[in-house]
Design a protein that fits this description.
By secondary structure, this protein is of the alpha/beta class. It has 22 helices and 16 strands. The strands form 4 sheets. The chain has a 7-stranded mixed β-sheet with strand order 6-7-14-11-10-8-9, sandwiched between helices. A 5-stranded parallel β-sheet has the order 2-3-1-4-5, with helices on both faces. It has a two-stranded antiparallel ribbon with strand order 12-13. The longest helix has 19 residues, at 125-143. The structure holds nicotinamide-adenine-dinucleotide and the ligand O=C(O)C(=O)C[C@@H](O)[C@H](O)[C@H](O)COP(=O)(O)O.
Length: 545
Amino acid sequence: MTGPLVVLVGPMGVGKSTVGELLAARLGTTYRDTDADVVAEAGKPIAEIFYDEGEDHFRALERRAVAAALTGHAGVLSLGGGAVLDGATRELLADRPVVYLSMDVEEAVRRVGLGAARPLLAVNPRRQWRELMDARRHLYEEVARTVVATDENTPEEVAQAIIDALELPEGQAAPGVESTGMTQQSPTRIQVAGSAGSDPYEVLVGHQLLGELPQLIGDRAKRVAVLHPEALADTGEAVRQDLADQGYEAIAIQLPNAEEAKTVEVAAYCWKALGQTGFTRTDVIVGIGGGATTDVAGFVAASWLRGVRWIAIPTTVLGMVDAAVGGKTGINTAEGKNLVGAFHPPAGVLCDLAALESLPVHDYVSGMAEIIKAGFIADPVILDLIEADPEAARTPAGPHTAELIERSIRVKAEVVSSDLKESGLREILNYGHTLGHAIEKNERYKWRHGAAVSIGMVFAAELGRLAGRLDDATADRHRTILESVGLPLTYRGDQWPKLLENMKVDKKSRGDLLRFIVLDALGKPTVLEGPDPAVLLAAYGEVSA
Ligand SMILES: NC(=O)c1ccc[n+]([C@@H]2O[C@H](COP(=O)([O-])OP(=O)(O)OC[C@H]3O[C@@H](n4cnc5c(N)ncnc54)[C@H](O)[C@@H]3O)[C@@H](O)[C@H]2O)c1
Ligand SMILES: O=C(O)C(=O)C[C@@H](O)[C@H](O)[C@H](O)COP(=O)(O)O
């Protein structure tokens, strides 16, 4: 029978790709992964396939990918963690050189860590892992010719064990292929300096960062409150359970999703929960979720006992690149967006990129607006990276995801490091937000923030152009790039009087003076004060539908 020399099965995080690539190099052959084949065929990440079409559809795609690889691939093949759940896929594996890579519970929890993309492990990872393996172990064993335990072994040792067990002939090592090791790459650490009397802190970007949490919480805390949105109930509970396992008195407080969390009623509910738990000044709040959640978590932390420490674990693009960094916390009121709040920086920010895999595409794209904002105001390389492949930039699987996120965080970190309280420079981060927030209020906070900011940036670009500051090419570039990732460019023409009224309570306004951030050129933001009402109207005409 022709086909792969080795087929690797086993749970998520066991190291199938690390071992598979290493093994392929040792055998002088190539490595293939059916998850990657499925993603390539569907044109979207696995989490989105599950979300849009359901698990049955995913398993059917996976079965086809396995069948194709078993006949068309002669090297090392690895299958997704759940492939063996499908009976027809198991039948395809009969008489194949299948190796089951196993690991024990503690190792699994350590390696897999926090991943909203791995919802099966979200609630109490240890217990869930045990249940998951109880359900799957016999299926792995049913298809496997041999079992190789990975727990105590390096990838090299695991590869050697497979070579020995299957008596595989070692070939010419493929040039340039080296083991990446089983351990995850260390996270990128971006420093935010202390400013206006606040402490410095770090923003970590990477994978499996939950292990950093206890150190950030510190040993002075007795109680920890984990604030999470309804959509991340499992993840919030998993974090709470992990903290409880480590001896903290940990409570979870579930908030509504999105902007519905940013109300005084929700803040009051949190204060009540903290009061009833006996939360003191040494205790710590953890906000895990999108920007709406971290805005509320930070605000509750700023207001409880006039300020307790808090840690942000952003799980959206927008949260990572913007909301969780910089210490602007707050809630909305009927009169306007973020009108009540405080500057209260977190003690640390953990951006676990795995969380983005479960983010619906429209929320992912909303975050692109703030990334593009960072590109226009400070780092044009961001724009180049997106323009090179806008479609890929819309997904966490894109080749530049981590770089786009890190570059945007660096822009924000640099600004807030020197002007926490927005006494000058920080206003540039508000590019596109004057009209954006007015639209959000007009839509009763039902719109996604990034969508409103997108229109706001096109408006600001037109304002800059009409004020004789911005060149045509840069102004036009706003439309092209925002549209290319799927963000809106226009809003209802008849709404101008209401929007103008809404903009008067923008935090950059001074008395009756409206102030806007515009560009003098790419990467050169500036303040435009009190523009002529006719110019404002003309700029709005350019974004009117
Ligand atoms: N403080 C700041 O400096 C700052 C900066 C920018 C934006 N913001 C604020 O951030 C908010 C927007 O944040 P956002 O875009 O993150 O939206 P969001 O917080 O409303 O989240 C969007 C939706 O995704 C869900 N969600 C979050 N993470 C998920 C995940 N990993 N998988 C699946 N679903 C997930 C949420 O529950 C919500 O329903 C606005 O209120 C905006 O004003 C604040
Ligand atoms: O951090 C800042 O400063 C910003 O302006 C970032 C904005 O992207 C963000 O939406 C912020 O919440 C807006 O603040 P606001 O003061 O205009 O409410």
